[in-house]
């Protein structure tokens, strides 16, 4: 009986020691990173963003070394990522009603967004009836468009590394030059740049001593604020925060993460509160 007790005692002791070792061993860093979304960056040059979870899928665009990307999910060894704004995707012209030279409205139910202007190309996602799209170019039977929020690409997990949990810190790569639609050439001056604009709904109220300004940069959404100043975005110039942007979300949300030119008035009163220039928007132009 005494021997049996000693055996049980030593067995329980080994179990407790084993559990202590397990709990003392640090959890691998990558395990803490596998909750989504998070901000990652490319670790190599020309990292392919593909239409699906293997190298057999079409290449949608490439990331430069150090370029940031927002990761929203994972399937085996592939990360599901938001497409950079410079990516081009395609929809059939059967389901688009043009609302302007650079804007369209989806007229069909759950319209497929594809990786190229071919019916057999990979479906990247679907957009609902009534959704607005930014049209880049008209092709035979198709529209080349900027990527809607409902479509995603895929990157091999070994080609990017975790950077931050704060996806609001995402800094899109700014485009210095843009191709002119249908020409195959690079735009060399502002007159050749394609644009889509939105006007502020109704009159904009600004202090009488405000100065007008027109600035170009990448529009980035701010974390939720508790005040009622209607300041929900900031403008990045050369990847650095330069202005807070005051204006209605309904007007600005369509331009999030894109390079835009914003016309408005500098609000001196809010600048004292925010410690950075605050621009009250009257007009936004998308620069492609």
Helix and strand layout, with pairings?
Elements: H1 2-24, H2 29-33, E1 38-42, E2 47-50, E3 59-63, E4 68-75, E5 78-82, E6 89-92, E7 96-100, E8 103-106, E9 111-114, E10 123-127, E11 132-139, E12 142-145, E13 152-156, E14 160-164, E15 195-199, E16 211-221, E17 231-237, E18 240-246, H3 249-252, E19 259-266, H4 268-274, E20 278-287
Q: What structural keywords apply?
A:
288 residues, 5-stranded antiparallel β-sheet, SH3 type barrels, 20 strands, OB fold (Dihydrolipoamide Acetyltransferase, E2P), globular, mainly beta
Residue stretches low in confidence (pLDDT < 50, at least 5 long) are 19-33, 176-195, 201-206
C-alpha geometry: globular
- Major β-sheet profile: 5 strands, antiparallel
> What is the average per-residue confidence, as pLDDT, rounded to a whole number?
79
User: Percent of residues in beta strands?
Assistant: 35-45%
Task: Give me the side-by-side strand order of the main sheet.
Answer: 13-5-4-1-14
Q: What is the CATH topology of the domain at 212-286?
A: OB fold (Dihydrolipoamide Acetyltransferase, E2P)
Looking at how many chains there are and whether they match, the oligomeric state comes to single chain
The radius of gyration computed from the alpha-carbon positions, rounded to a whole number of angstroms, is: 25 Å
Class inferred from helices and paired strands = mainly beta
Helix/strand order, N-terminal first? HHEEEEEEEEEEEEEEEEEEHEHE
> What is the count of helical runs?
4
CATH architect. name of the domain at 212-286: Beta Barrel
**Class of the domain at 212-286, according to the CATH hierarchy?**
Mainly Beta
Q: State the end-to-end CA separation.
A: 84 Å
Helical coverage, percent range? 10-25%
* Number of extended strands: 20
């Amino acid at each position: 009986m005494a021997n049996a007790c000693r055996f049980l005692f030593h067995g329980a002791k080994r179990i407790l020691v084993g559990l202590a070792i397990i709990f003392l061993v640090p959890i691998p860093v990558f395990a803490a990173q596998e909750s989504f979304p998070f901000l990652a960056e490319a670790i190599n040059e020309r990292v392919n963003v593909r239409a699906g979870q293997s190298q057999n899928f079409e290449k949608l665009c490439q990331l430069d070394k150090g370029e940031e990307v927002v990761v929203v999910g994972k399937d085996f060894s592939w990360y599901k990522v938001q497409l950079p704004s410079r990516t081009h995707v395609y929809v059939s012209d059967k389901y688009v009603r043009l609302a302007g030279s650079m804007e369209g409205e989806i007229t069909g139910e759950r319209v497929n967004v594809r990786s190229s202007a071919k019916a057999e190309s990979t479906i990247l996602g679907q957009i609902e009836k009534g959704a607005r799209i930014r049209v880049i170019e008209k092709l035979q039977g198709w529209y080349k468009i900027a990527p809607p929020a409902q479509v995603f690409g895929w990157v091999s997990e070994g080609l990017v590394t975790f950077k931050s949990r704060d996806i609001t810190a995402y800094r899109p790569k700014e485009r210095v030059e843009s191709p002119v639609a249908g020409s195959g050439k690079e735009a060399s001056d502002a007159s050749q740049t394609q644009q889509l604009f939105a006007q502020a709904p109704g009159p904009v109220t600004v202090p009488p001593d405000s100065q007008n300004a027109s600035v170009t940069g990448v529009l980035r959404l701010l974390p939720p604020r508790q005040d009622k100043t209607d300041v929900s975005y900031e403008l990045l110039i050369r990847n650095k925060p330069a202005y807070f942007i005051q204006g209605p979300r309904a007007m600005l949300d369509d331009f999030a993460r894109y390079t835009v030119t914003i016309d408005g008035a500098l609000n001196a009163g809010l600048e004292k509160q925010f410690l950075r220039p605050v621009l009250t928007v009257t007009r936004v132009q998308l620069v492609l």
